[in-house]
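Q: I'm building a small set of examples for a reading group on sequence design. Run inverse folding on the following structure and report the sequence directly after it, with nothing in between.
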């Protein structure tokens, strides 16, 4: 059965986060007939509450040499930037073993090279996308300022900065006066700044996805709200199992871009991904956005401070705690406290909190491309801490691969 009458390849994209929505838009713009399916409104998953950073130079994977030493702290200190609750340890062990293996120097170099390739050109691509969608005000190109209290704290990131340099990014080192010249409200505690000038920020990640979804629908793409419970291939075509929305239609291709939930969707097909949720949190203060004028990273606390459209957002923390457990409000409270300690003027402002599931591979490299052994099945997940940054390049790769494959068949 043809899904669409036009004769163009029919594609279902499962997941309308920043990754799936970018893919759906890219495919539609290149002529495919596309159905974008999500159980929620576009952009309400992990893509809702991120820090908005287009971090082109973040090529250091999370697993770095020495990571093993941090594991006891993860287990024992529930205020650590990396936290693993004891109850989840048995479930996390296989992923953790691969994570630790990914910290070998050769594996780190390989991951960094792949991340650099995926992130090259992201700044220009997002700037053009925001402009093309009619939301240029969401794109702020004013650099990122990383802050450290002292040399000792900077030394802890000693492996990461050379990887950025090797990828062609140079940071300008600032003293306290230099920090104040850029961001006068930052706490006195911070004495060393590393300024990455050519970096940018999306000032409302949800509105960005919504603008993409709007352009997709306006261009003839279809959006359906449904919880996809499975995928099946019959006579070379794909069907979605989902109450209501997909109503038995068949597709030439299906793209799984379901973020941290992709593993469960793919497992029944025999596609096994070492994908784990790294739960991240934000605390957002309504009215506090003028305290900074660009993305500021309190690097010793591993938090990003962003002047979002709707307030000052403090995003960060990694909690390996699975998809099912409710948010641990203590984690978001820690972010709120860090913000109040480092910026005066936040005490009386209302604070909202949020938790999202980063879809993470052990080596931090997303899985983008055809699923081996399953013609017509495409994978676009595992973007971890950088899914916003990497989304447009992912969409281009999938569209190139899929439409090339369709043209050839
Ligand atoms: C605190 C925090 C800060 C971050 N900061 C940054 C940053 O500054 N820069 C950056 O580049 N990245 C950042 N990230 C990472 C980024 O947000 C993610 O990598 C990205 O959002 C992943 O996008 P996605 O589309 O793969 O997943 P999601 O946005 O989670 O989308 C997946 C979608 O699939 C849907 N879905 C899942 N299963 C099904 C199903 N069975 N049926 C139907 N629908 C389904 C979900 O409802 C969801 O909408 C941050 C993340 C966090 C948590």
């Amino acid at each position: 059965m043809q899904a669409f009458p036009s004769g163009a390849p029919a594609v279902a994209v499962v997941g309308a986060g920043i990754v799936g929505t970018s893919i759906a838009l890219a495919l539609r713009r290149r002529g495919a007939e596309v159905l974008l399916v999500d159980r929620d409104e576009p952009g309400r998953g992990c893509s809702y509450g991120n820090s908005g950073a287009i971090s082109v130079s973040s090529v250091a994977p999370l697993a770095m040499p020495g990571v093993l030493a941090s594991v006891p702290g993860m287990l024992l200190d529930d205020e650590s930037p990396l936290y693993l609750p004891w109850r989840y340890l048995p479930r996390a062990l296989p992923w953790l073993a691969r994570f630790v293996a990914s910290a070998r120097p050769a594996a780190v170099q390989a991951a960094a090279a792949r991340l650099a390739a995926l992130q090259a050109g992201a700044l220009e691509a997002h700037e053009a996308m925001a402009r093309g969608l009619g939301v240029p005000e969401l794109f702020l190109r004013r650099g990122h300022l990383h802050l450290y209290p002292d040399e000792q704290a900077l030394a802890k990131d000693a492996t990461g900065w050379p990887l950025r340099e090797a990828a062609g990014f140079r940071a300008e080192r600032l003293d306290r006066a230099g920090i104040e010249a850029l961001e006068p409200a930052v706490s006195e505690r911070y004495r060393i700044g590393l300024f990455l000038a050519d970096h940018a920020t999306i000032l409302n990640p949800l509105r960005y996805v919504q603008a993409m979804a709007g352009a997709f629908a306006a261009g003839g793409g279809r959006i359906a709200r449904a919880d996809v419970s499975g995928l099946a291939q019959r006579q070379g075509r794909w069907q979605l199992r989902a109450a209501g929305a997909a109503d038995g239609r068949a597709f030439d291709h299906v793209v799984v871009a379901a973020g941290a939930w992709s593993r469960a969707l793919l497992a029944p097909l025999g596609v096994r991904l070492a994908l784990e949720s790294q739960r991240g949190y934000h605390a957002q203060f309504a009215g506090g956005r003028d305290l900074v004028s660009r993305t500021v990273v309190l690097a010793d606390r591993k938090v990003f401070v962003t002047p979002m459209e709707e307030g000052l957002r403090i995003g960060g923390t990694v909690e390996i705690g699975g998809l099912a457990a409710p948010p641990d409000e203590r984690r978001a409270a820690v972010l709120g406290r860090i913000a109040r300690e480092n910026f005066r003027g936040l005490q009386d402002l209302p604070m909202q909190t949020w938790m999202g599931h980063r879809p993470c591979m052990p080596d931090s490299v997303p899985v983008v491309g055809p699923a081996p052994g399953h013609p017509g099945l495409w994978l676009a997940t595992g973007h971890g801490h950088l899914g916003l940054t990497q989304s447009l390049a992912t969409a281009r790769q999938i569209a190139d691969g899929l439409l090339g494959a369709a043209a050839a068949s």
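The first strand starts at residue 10 and ends at 14.
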